[in-house]
From TrEMBL:
InterPro entries: Methyltranfer_dom, SAM-binding_MTase, SAM-dependent_MTases_sf, WH-like_DNA-bd_sf, WH_DNA-bd_sf, WHD_Rv2258c. The keyword Cell division does not apply. This is Class I SAM-dependent methyltransferase. Pfam families: Methyltransf_31 (PF13847), WHD_Rv2258c (PF21320).
Amino acid sequence: MCRLCAQILPEEAFAEKVLDIINGAAINQMLSLGHQSGLFDTLAGLEPATSEAIAERAGLNERYVREWLGAMVVSGILVYDPDAALYHLPPSHAAFLTRDASPNNLAVVAQFMPMLGTVEGGILECFRKGGGLRYEEYPGFHRVMAEDSGQSVVMNLFSHILPLVDGLDARLRDGIEVLDLGCGSGRALIAMAQRYPASRFVGYDLSHEAVGNARGEADRLQLGNIEFAVRDVSRLDDRDRFDLVTAFDAIHDQARPERVLAVVNEALKVDGVFLMVDIAASSRLENNVGHPLAPTLYAISCMHCMSVSLGQGGRGLGTVWGRELALSMLQEAGFGRTEVHQLEHDIQNYYYVNRKA
């Protein structure tokens, strides 16, 4: 049998698969609403309750809450007693759907698709004419990214991520210069600035909104060892300045990623380290079949990461640029030594520890 034929499903099986996908999309929308409204947090630890009691406790409209509860019951997320009309979120389910469950709160991730759906018309136009969208065309993007970063990066920063670089904790305590590229709302950098007051931290991002959010939080915390600026990170003049440069899920959607990597190499001191966190995937499509997040990664790429790069006249690598291409580009940028790590609890990212040649 040919390789293509082996991948073809029988008609009925394919129809069932598409129906599952459609239902999954509907459930995803409800998960996002449940997270943003606080309903999952309200239900966590609550004894079985009526829709009226749940709505009152959450401070929400009962009719909408009741319809949402129905979606949660038929999707198997809540359990239901029809005789007493009681709804319940089992603790084993709450462990993946509530703010207390961080960093395992999958409801945070569910927010991406509804948010990206708001630009569907613009992306459709890109299909017809090419080009891409601008960062500012994505309403709520920085809020969702900041929340996702808070549980995926910041929660693991000091326990798992920074320890990948031998001796880094001691150097940060003594005082070094640190740059974060594509810093977004600055949660990771602010966490480091709080923990390591002797070090100096700089965050660059293209988004005025994100940088404004980061500055506001740093000011609120009265941090004197951190600064944020709106910068095109492919055009830096910070040669031989930094001991550590970080990029958390920020390189693949750059307009000129090869130039950004070369600039990072130039900005590092001789013994400096570039810690790059990016998507755990292959550059070869066939190797990504079966990846537990592959459909989501390609969808986010099409709807955002690839598009914002193309919107700047860039290369449009996309979210799933892959390990093979990443290693090749790092080598071309002048990094002679690269270690690739994957954390046991993180199926989404590779952690690249890079040093100059």
